[in-house]
Amino acid sequence: MSKIRKGDEVILTTGKDKGKRGTVLRVLDTGHVLVEGVNKVKKHTRPNPMKGINGGIMDKEMPIDISNVALFNDSAQKADRVGFKILEDGRKVRVFKSSGEVIDA
């Protein structure tokens, strides 16, 4: 079970986009995450009329290491660490370390 999943709202803790918030679009096997609106780079593309691709400079989101993001706690309005807890019914859920509040319903 991963601490950060697709659809989670995260905040960047390091790098050029430190402090920005975004939603996780993908979690990659290499220990990286793709976050919406952060770590944008300029990609120069050549036109390819066979595929219908226009040339030019495009903005593209690049993966960022999972250690450089933290889950955003809505109730505390800040980044928070994640732990695991097993409930009475046997389910394993994620919880915030600061408050013990359950993330997964």
Q: How does this structure look, described?
A:
0% of the residues lie in helices and 45% in strands. It has a domain at 9-75: SH3 type barrels, CATH 2.30.30.30. The chain has strands at 9-12, 21-27, 32-35, 40-45, 56-61, 64-65, 69-73, 78-80, 82-86, 92-96. A hairpin with an 8-residue loop joins strand 1 (9-12) and strand 2. By secondary structure, the protein is an all-beta fold.
Unreliably modeled segments: none
Give the C-alpha Rg: 17 Å
Instruction: Return the string of H and E elements.
Output: EEEEEEEEEE
State the end-to-end distance.
Answer: 15 Å
Shape by Cα distribution: elongated
Helicity level, as a percent range? Answer: under 10%
Q: How many DSSP helices?
A: 0
Instruction: Indicate the proportion of strand residues.
Output: 35-45%
DSSP E strands, number: 10
CATH hierarchy class name of the domain at 9-75: Mainly Beta
The structural class is mainly beta
The strands making up the biggest β-sheet line up spatially as 6-3-2-1-7-8
Under CATH, the topology of the domain at 9-75 can be stated as SH3 type barrels
Main pleated sheet: 6 strands, antiparallel
By CATH, the architecture of the domain at 9-75 is named Roll
What is the arithmetic mean of pLDDT?
A: 92
